[in-house]
Write a structure and sequence with these properties.
By secondary structure, the chain is α+β, with helices and mostly antiparallel strands. The protein is built from 15 helices and 20 strands. An eight-stranded antiparallel beta sheet has the order 13-12-9-10-11-14-19-17, sandwiched between helices. Strands 3-2-1-4-5 form a five-stranded parallel beta sheet. β9 and β10 form a beta hairpin. It is globular and about 60 Å long.
């Protein structure tokens, strides 16, 4: 097992990884920018190294600085966390080339799943259903028109190197195609330096269903059930729950086993998530995330298994602690992502925390690096806390979530806490009757 792990991230996820390491008897090294010198993960780590100024490109994305920090502190392994370098195949390669273990999948698997066209072809060949669309990147506008006519409108044009909703445009009719094509390519070029796009059939009312997976280097793979991440704004998840209120027992068993079988065939090592659109009783693969995800927490709550601990064990070459038959699902869990944003305009709201009181009680968990007096910087993602609750069933979970949101106090800045209190009171949400377009339609009506 590793003796010392460098955590190449910040905020709540860096703190989450630190806690798992501490419970395993592993010492930790925190890296930080000058803007994060007083961050909680820096305060609690055994050692810390400043890797640059506030801008991410000069600190958390600064590969030479991160590798140097690992070398001078004598770290055995590097955990990339979520975002930043977590799905960067070049970084994973360089970590291993410099003699450190990368707590994540192999560079080859990161590279395969990082290209959406290659990923789609790979999993299709392994038996996963995919959304009807182009076989690969579209050659030109004429090629796009042929595919659009073949699969029928509306269609979705997506960046091949994309993620996070960037480079995605809907063409509802053939007349809309050229504008959507140009907009998607331009956005893809600006965001990823690659203007290749592909096309899929646009589903009108799908749910976003993802399956949490874990594989080891000994040929074993398991799933930890599915999560419903359909409550989204601009393709960014806002609320997640597990299990999905939209699936029945046979559907969730089928998709879980199918996804686990795919990563077993791939020889995949580490945690990962296969994401699907679900409509009319059918699943369609959309992408695989080759990293830990923000919402891993709700899978932990319904299984009682520490996924970060398992991720670290697998990276150290150990076999999985669990066979599929050992994973028991219990109750229901919901996560709310709390952002430092105005709840009406969604404008960022950095500043000093003046009054912080997280909720507590049975089956209430808050993952956050906040503390009273902490200054939320303006340089990074606006998510500042995750509220996760668990109940014996969905109704109990909803009641507990309502109570926890009422207790949660974050003063000094605007947050999206009022939005979450409002959302969970809506009849559609209470009934589990929503899809990936529901939140934006709801906000448009306000």
């Amino acid at each position: 097992m590793f003796e010392k792990v460098l955590i190449a991230n910040r905020g709540e996820i860096a703190l989450r990884i630190h806690r798992a390491c501490r419970e395993m008897g592993i010492r930790t090294v925190a890296i930080h920018s000058t803007a994060d010198a007083d961050a909680m993960h820096v305060r609690l780590a055994d050692e810390s190294v400043c890797v640059g100024p506030p801008a991410s490109k000069d600190s958390y994305l600064n590969i030479p600085a991160i590798l140097t920090a690992a070398a001078i502190t004598g770290a055995d392994a590097i955990h990339p966390g979520i975002g930043f370098m977590s799905e960067n195949a070049k970084f994973a390669e360089m970590v291993e080339q410099h003699g450190f273990a990368f707590i994540g999948p192999t560079p080859d698997h990161i590279r395969i799943m990082g290209d959406k066209v290659t990923a789609k072809k790979t999993v299709k060949d392994l038996g996963l259903p995919t959304v009807p669309g182009s076989d690969g990147a579209l050659k030109d506008l004429d090629d796009a028109r042929k595919v659009g006519d073949a699969i029928g409108y509306p269609v979705l044009i997506k960046a091949a190197a994309g993620g996070g909703g960037k480079g995605m445009k809907v063409a509802r009719t053939a007349a809309d195609l050229e504008d959507s094509w140009n907009l998607a390519r331009g956005e893809a070029r600006a965001a990823f330096g690659n203007d290749e796009v592909y096309m899929e059939k646009y589903l009108e009312k799908p749910r976003h269903i993802e399956v949490q997976l874990l594989g080891d280097s000994h040929g074993n793979a398991v799933h930890f059930g599915e999560r419903d991440c359909s409550i989204q704004r601009r393709h960014q998840k806002v609320i997640e729950e597990a299990p999905s209120p939209g699936l029945n027992a046979s559907e969730r068993m089928e998709i879980g086993n199918l996804a686990a079988d795919v990563i077993r065939k791939l020889g995949y090592r580490g945690v990962g998530t296969i994401e699907f659109l679900y409509e009319g009783g059918k699943f369609y693969f959309i992408e695989m995330n080759t990293r830990l995800q923000i919402e891993h927490t709700i899978s932990e709550m319904i299984t009682g298994i520490d996924l970060v601990r398992e991720q670290i064990r697998v990276a150290a070459g150990l076999p999985l602690s669990y066979a599929q038959k050992d994973i028991v699902f219990s109750g229901h869990s919901i996560e709310c992502r709390i952002n430092a944003e105005n709840p009406e305009t969604f404008a960022p709201s950095p500043g000093v925390i003046k009054g912080y009181h997280p909720p507590g009680g049975l089956d209430v968990r808050v993952d956050s690096a906040l503390y009273d007096g902490y200054r939320v910087p303006s340089n990074y993602d606006s998510m500042i806390a995750k509220l996760i609750v668990h109940g014996s069933n969905r109704n109990e979970c909803l009641l507990r979530l309502r109570r926890a949101l009422e207790e949660f106090v974050i003063g000094g800045i605007d947050t999206t806490l009022p939005l979450h209190r409002h959302l969970i009171a809506q009849t559609d949400f209470i009934n589990g009757d929503y899809d990936i377009h529901w939140l934006e339609k709801f906000l448009d009506k306000k």
